[in-house]
Amino acid sequence: KSANPQWREQFDFHYFSDRKDMLDIEVWRKDNKKHEELLGTCQVDITALPMKQTNRLELPLEKHPGSLLMLIAVAPCTGVSISDLCVCPLGDPSERQQISQRYCVKNSFRDIKDIGFLQVKVLKAVDLLAADFSGKSDPFCVLELGNDMLQTHTVYKNLNPEWNKVFTFPIKDIHDVLEVTVFDEDGDKPPDFLGKVAIPLLSV
Questions:
Q1: Nearest of 140, 123, 117 to residue 84 by alpha carbon
Q2: In this structure, what DSSP letter does residue 126 have?
Q3: Among residues 74, 91, 111, which one ends one of the domains?
Q4: 10 within domain boundaries
Q5: Of 8, 26, 137, 145, which is the most exposed, with the fewest CB atoms less than 10 Å away?
Q6: What confidence tens digit (pLDDT) does each residue in 85-138 have?
């Protein structure tokens, strides 16, 4: 019930290669659980923004009244990685020892926001739902921790896909929940939901 909403949410998007990319933003209005209406869209050319500083942008919505106020910072990626199983970032014993020392009890209050790392190895899925007419699916896996999101590649025409990927997240809140969702890639259409699991960090 507001024409001037304040969300104050922060989202981290991770880029691991030098590629030109646009940030697409959509604003939606929700009447109830079933009815939604698009209130406008806008784009930000990430490559045009200065690095290592917070950019304050007021973005008019295309073909609709209103604008969005955003703070966008482009910075080198730290603490987050995607790698193959054979080159696991924390596989080196000396590196593991350094991390154990960094997060030992005596260093607990050195940096309150630096809680630790979560490393997730996404190996495979078994007996997935067939989403295509061919009796197969094109599954990929999305991992979400807080407002961080990473995903695997798509394995086409397979109900038992093997991804063998390693994801490393910095932990910002020990009460966060790791959500792992499997989707079926469906071309230009939104992906189909194939299943989900939620793992509270405190249970690990």
A1: 123
A2: -
A3: 74
A4: no
A5: 8
A6: 776 666 667 777 777 777 777 766 666 666 788 889 999 999 999 988 888 999
Question: Do both 70 and 86 map to the same domain?
Answer: no
The tens digit of pLDDT for each residue in 161-191 reads 999 999 988 888 889 999 999 999 988 788 9
User: Dihedral of the CA atoms 60, 62, 64, 68 (nearest 10)?
Assistant: -30
Within this chain, do residues 160 and 66 fall inside the same structural domain, yes or no?
A: no
Q: What does pTM read for this prediction?
A: 0.62
Tell me the C-alpha distance between 199 and 204, whole Å. Answer: 8
State the total domains in the chain: 2
String of b and e for 77-101 (b: at least 16 CB within 10 Å)? eeebbbbeeeeeeeeeeeeeeeeee
Per-residue confidence band for 78, with pLDDT thresholds at 50, 70 and 90 = low
In a domain? residue 59 = yes
- Smallest CA-to-CA distance from 60 within 41, 77, 75, 74 is with 41
The residue among 201, 185, 191 whose CA lies nearest residue 153 is: 185
The distance from CA 59 to its chain's CA centroid, rounded to whole angstroms, is: 23
Same domain, 130 and 189: yes
